[in-house]
Amino acid sequence: MRRKIELYLYRAESLFWENWLGIRTRTTRLPYERSRDAEHKIYTPTIYRTIFRVLRSLPLKAEDVFVDLGCGKGRVVCCAAYLGAAQVIGVEYVKELHDIALNNAERMRRRQSPISISLGEVEDFDFSLGTVFFMFNSFGRKTIESILTKMEDGLRKNPREIRIAYVNPVYGLAMKERPWLERYGFWRRFDVVMLWRSKLDRQS
Fold first, then answer.
1. Tens digit of pLDDT for each residue in 144-178?
2. pTM score, two decimals?
3. For helices 95-107 and 75-83, what crossing angle results, to 10°?
4. HEC profile of 29-91
5. d(CA 42, CA 72)
6. CA distance 117 to 45
7. CA distance 153 to 63
8. Are residues 72 and 82 in contact, defined by beta-carbon separation less than 8 angstroms?
9. Paired sense of beta strands 87-92 and 115-119, if any
10. Contact by Cβ (8 Å): 176, 183
11. Residue 42, by phi and psi: left (phi above 0), alpha (psi -120 to 50) or beta?
């Protein structure tokens, strides 16, 4: 019974935010949403209550450039644009998901930030850009390692503090092993979430 109530509340919450923002990101399994390989996981949207708790815990600032790595249909991107930042960027390698995210970004209501959706592999993103990065458990260990290496290279090119939200952090150990990162937030309610930030003294 408790499980049924939780599922009902989850669906009601999703319906509310989808209508409030004017977007459609709830998942129906389609062929292109299947995992391509061990490094690219099945598309699964993050629940809204987790998204908003993450965004408020970062916290998201008006001058931030927010980047969702593996943005799927654009749910997190639209929530970030609703709360406000200097710019919001989504990166997605599946063309069909990219197109849905782009459509959601264009149609959403109550947007406070400009949104751009980039088509391509997350490893190819220019990591000298961005101050806040969001990742769900969308990638394998190899991809996470590559992302972190390129983030560090981006910090050398453009020294600044960056913050990283990692939801369902299966490969959180890979982040712990990076001496330029420090964890400053963690919780297990609804989803497991780790918040990390760069150490300014290691960006030279």
1. 999 999 999 999 999 999 999 999 999 999 999 99
2. 0.90
3. 30
4. CCHHHCCCECCECCCCCCCHHHHHHHHHHCCCCCCCEEEEECCCCCHHHHHHHHHCCCEEEEE
5. 10
6. 16
7. 22
8. no
9. parallel
10. yes
11. beta
For the chain, what's the residue count?
204
- All structural domains of the chain, each given as residue ranges with its CATH number in brackets, are 2-202 (3.40.50.150)
Q: How far are the Cα atoms of 16, 36, 42, 79, 131 from residue 22, in angstroms, in the given order?
A: 10, 30, 24, 11, 27
Q: 127 and 118 in contact (C-beta within 8 Å)?
A: no
Tokens of 91: 């990166």
Q: Order across the sheet with 115-119: list the strands.
A: 115-119, 87-92, 65-69, 132-135, 163-167, 193-198, 181-187
pLDDT tens for residues 68-121?
999 999 999 999 999 999 999 999 999 999 999 999 999 999 999 999 999 999
145 and 173 in contact (C-beta within 8 Å)? no
- SS3 at position 163: strand
- With beta carbons less than 8 A apart as the criterion, state whether 90 and 68 touch: yes
pLDDT the model gives residue 36: 53
